[in-house]
Amino acid sequence: MDHKERRIHNGYVYIRKDSNKNFEYSNLIQEHIVVAEEQIIDRPLKEGEVVHHLDENRSNNSPDNLLVLSGPMHGKLHSWLNKNNIIPKEEYANRLKLGCVRCKVCEKPIDPNLEFCSFSCSKDPVNGCQSAKHKFQHPTKEELQELVLDKPTTKIAEQFGVSDKAIEKLCIKLGVEKPPRGYWAKLRNGEQMLVW
Ligand SMILES: [Zn+2]
Ligand SMILES: [Zn+2]
Fold first, then answer.
1. φ, ψ for residue 176 (rounded to 5)?
2. Of 139, 147, 165, 193, which is the most exposed, with the fewest CB atoms less than 10 Å away?
């Protein structure tokens, strides 16, 4: 989906379902719905499910700002927030000013510590940032195999400025096997790891 063009209505960001069509009402979808489905739950929203903006900024569609809840849970959350007078922390207040953090190439909403939504965007030679700092080299299968044994996916993702999901997708694409679930937790606890 082309995330570059968007409209804001009532504080919500709208994008086109089909980038070849015009900005007509029937062709629009709320961006936070797309981000939740594509980047958080990896499935379409079910009837009655709601996407909540944690910082109350309806146009901040970075995945870490969104929470998928059932309608009743969402209602409870809001009454609880109201009753307890919850005020976003300073960092969230700053995020509010900053608005949504977007991929530098395709402008898809991303977590604020990332620069790109995916490997393909991070190595985009035309639209991507040209400075050496942002130039991204796709790791080879051997390099990635070494990396996954060396550190958790989140750390590798940080190193390349992409999401965990992008690393996982690349592992599958290159046929790189990741250590089993719980490997890093066990290692932190000083447990002996068996060869797997
Ligand atoms: Zn809400
Ligand atoms: Zn992108």
1. -90, 130
2. 193
